[in-house]
Structure formats: structure tokens, C-alpha cells
Design goal:
This protein is of the alpha/beta class and 367 residues long. It has a single domain, classed as TIM Barrel (Alpha-Beta Barrel). It contains 15 helices and 14 strands. It has an eight-stranded parallel sheet. A two-stranded antiparallel sheet has the order 1-2. The protein has a two-stranded antiparallel ribbon with strand order 3-14. Helix 11 crosses helix 12 and helix 13 packs across helix 14. The radius of gyration is 19 Å and the shape is globular. The mean pLDDT is 97. Bound molecules: pyruvic acid. The site of pyruvic acid has 5 residues, from loops.
């Protein structure tokens, strides 16, 4: 452990054994301080939507097919012209220094070693440059929380572009923070500065709660902002936090190059549907025009399969990777992506599919 500003950070760098992703949560709880763990693991209100994210996958079944060759399964795929080894990518999650001294840099290193895509959060503990460097040439996305201060947005977009971001993820579901009881109970304030805020705004975020951080972000984000970001940065802009087909259409009409279906891991609006509940209708609205990325609640290979068969092109995970970061640093993160991809590959074969495209064409049943 390393103590920084009175906060105990894991500095582990070791292989971890994973039986399933759920078990990582309890293991991580033992080593991440209570306030940090509460922030990472929490959902909003009574966490109904967070739970629904998981339950929604059980509303469909995979139609098992046999008499199809599954000798050479391949989980590789591509997005925006970038090839990756697995359709499972890293979701943007904030303040990873809460889990490990190396924060996002270790996550980026582990994700790159697994051959997939890192997403850096605006609210990262480590800087865009340091995290990009740790990706060692592997593809990564930059997630933007827009500020009212357009110069701040420009500074981050310039920084992300100059360090090689493959796309910008514009989050549009966080005009306000969800009512998150663990943070209130723990009186949680970020113990560590957030590198991008420290470099480009008046406050580093240290000593503030997530409500205060969100209060400084732009509350009114419309299609015009999507267009402005896309025109300014000249990279694909993926709009994250879409939960309705009409909003997907709005985003596409405003120049979005990707749609990210997510309810923020159940951390924002409680009482809304599970993210998987709304994926099929949004994918139908997008109709293959741009990539669809999906997150919220994915813990199993069969769930990756169901998401792809429901119209997602990529599936993102957040919390399990952060738990693994605490437990094993970059090696832990790498293991999570390799483990979930391994479970997915087993499901692919048992379902009679051999490629990610086969999975996308696979039939789901509703018994
Ligand atoms: C969250 O706390 O959910 C953020 O995305 C910052």
C-alpha cells in the first residue's frame, strides 16, 4: 500500500486468478478504502436499475446451434478501422487512483496487453499524456465531460488528439449526479487531484464530491454540442448514455459517428430500464450506420454474446476492471479482459458460432 493524502492506494502488480468477475468485487472491497470502494461500486437510490442491468440479460436466451464448425473461433473485430482481439473494451471510469497508485496508466497498460481499447475519462487521476503513453500504441478513446468553459473542452480535445486518441466519447447522461447513498454515508470527497482538471481548470477536484464536480460540467448538452465537438476535433464522436431510439436518431442527425448505449452502470437515473432492455430498439434505429457500443452490467461471456446478438458491435466493462486494477495492477486488468474473452469464446462455440459476425447474426429466443 502507498498512502497519498491520507488515502491508502494499492500498489500491487501481480497475476490474479479469476473464477468469475463477481468474486472480484468482494476481494477488492478488502483492499480499497471504504470511501473509494463505495464510490466505485455504487449505483443510485435503491440501485433498482443497477440490478436490472444484470437481470435484463435473463429475458432472452441464446438459440444453441449444432452441426456448424466451431473449430477455429475468433473473437477479433474492428471499429473505426482499428483491429482489436476482442469485442470487449474498457469503459471510461473516473478517478482510478482510488484503486491503484498508477491509476489509469496501469489500466491502459493492461488493456493494451489484452489487445483491446482503453477509454480515458475526463476525470482521470493520471493525465491524458501519461495514460496515452501507457497504451504503447494500442488504440484508445478519450471521454469528454463537457464544461461550460469551451476553452477547457478545446484544451482536452487538443490534448487527446495530439496524443493519438482514436475517437472521442461524449457523455450526455450526467447533467447531474444520481443520488448515491454510499458517497453520502461515507462523506466521500475525492482524496486525489484529477490530472485534467488540475491542468486545465480552476480546481483539481481534490476535496470535492462528485455532485460538485458534475455541477461544473455543462448542464445543457444538445445536438449542437455534438456537432461542435465533432467539427472541432475532427475525430469520430461517439455519444454515450443513449437509452432511447429517438435520442440515437438525434445524435446521428447531429454528426455522431457512434452510439454508446449505457445507463452509466445504474449510477445516474434510477427507475429506468436495464441497458440491455433498450439495446435492440436502439440498434434497429441505428441500422448499421455507425458502430453501437454497449455497457452496464456485463459480467459474463454469455452476456457479451447476447449484447452482440442484439445489435452491439462492442461491449464495454467498467467496475470489474477497476477491481482487478486494485488486486493486480496492469496484470490484473489484462487478466479481466482475457478472462471475459475466454468465457465469451466458450459461449461462441457452444452456440455454434465462430466469428463475431456470426454472433451478430445469431438468434435469441424469448421464452
Ligand atoms: C461517475 O461517478 O459515475 C462518473 O462518471 C464520474
Amino acid at each position: 500500500m502507498t498512502v497519498t493524502n491520507g488515502y491508502e492506494q494499492s500498489d500491487r502488480e501481480q497475476a490474479i486468478k479469476i473464477i468469475n468477475l463477481d468474486e472480484l468485487e468482494d476481494q477488492a472491497r478488502q483492499i480499497i478504502p471504504q470511501g473509494g470502494f463505495g464510490y466505485i461500486s455504487e449505483g443510485s437510490e435503491d440501485e433498482w436499475t443497477k440490478a436490472r442491468n444484470r437481470a435484463a440479460f435473463n429475458t432472452v436466451q441464446i438459440a444453441p446451434r449444432v452441426l456448424h464448425s466451431v473449430e477455429a473461433p475468433s473473437t477479433s473485430t474492428s471499429v473505426f478501422g482499428v483491429s482489436i482481439k476482442t469485442p470487449v473494451i474498457m469503459a471510461p471510469t473516473a478517478a482510478q487512483g482510488l484503486a491503484h497508485t498508477r491509476g489509469e496508466a496501469a489500466t491502459a497498460e493492461g488493456v493494451a496487453a489484452a489487445g483491446t481499447i482503453m477509454s480515458q475519462s475526463t476525470y482521470g487521476t493520471t493525465s491524458i499524456a501519461e495514460t496515452a503513453e501507457a497504451s504503447k500504441g494500442a488504440p484508445w478513446f478519450f471521454q469528454l465531460y463537457m464544461s461550460n468553459d469551451w476553452e477547457f473542452n478545446e484544451a482536452l480535445l487538443d490534448e487527446a488528439k495530439s496524443h493519438g486518441a482514436a475517437a472521442v466519447v461524449l457523455t450526455v447522461d450526467s447533467m447531474q449526479g444520481g443520488y448515491r447513498e454510499p458517497d453520502i454515508r461515507n462523506e466521500f470527497q475525492f482524496p486525489l487531484p484529477m490530472a485534467n482538471l488540475a491542468a486545465f481548470s480552476e480546481t483539481s477536484g481534490k476535496g470535492k464530491g462528485i455532485f460538485e464536480i458534475y455541477a461544473a460540467a455543462k448542464q445543457k448538452i444538445t445536438g449542437a454540442d455534438v456537432r461542435r465537438v465533432a467539427e472541432y476535433v475532427g475525430l469520430p464522436v461517439i455519444v454515450k448514455g443513449i437509452q432511447d431510439p429517438c435520442d440515437a436518431a438525434l445524435a446521428l442527425g447531429s454528426g455522431a459517428s457512434g452510439i454508446w448505449v449505457s445507463n452509466h452502470g445504474g449510477r445516474q437515473l434510477n427507475g429506468g430500464p436495464g441497458s440491455f432492455d433498450v439495446l435492440p430498439s436502439i440498434a434497429r434505429a441505428v441500422n448499421g450506420r455507425v458502430p453501437v457500443i454497449f455497457d452496464s452490467g456485463v459480467r459474463r461471456g454469455s452476456q457479451v454474446f447476447k449484447a452482440l446478438a442484439s445489435g452491439a458491435d462492442l461491449v464495454a466493462i467498467g467496475r470489474p476492471a477497476i477491481y482487478a486494477l486494485a488486486l493486480g495492477g496492469a496484470q490484473g486488468v489484462r487478466t479481466v479482459f482475457e478472462y471475459l474473452t475466454h468465457e465469451f469464446r466458450i459461449v461462441m462455440q457452444l452456440a455454434g458460432t465462430q466469428t463475431v459476425d456470426d454472433v451478430k447474426r445469431a438468434k435469441l429466443l424469448h421464452y
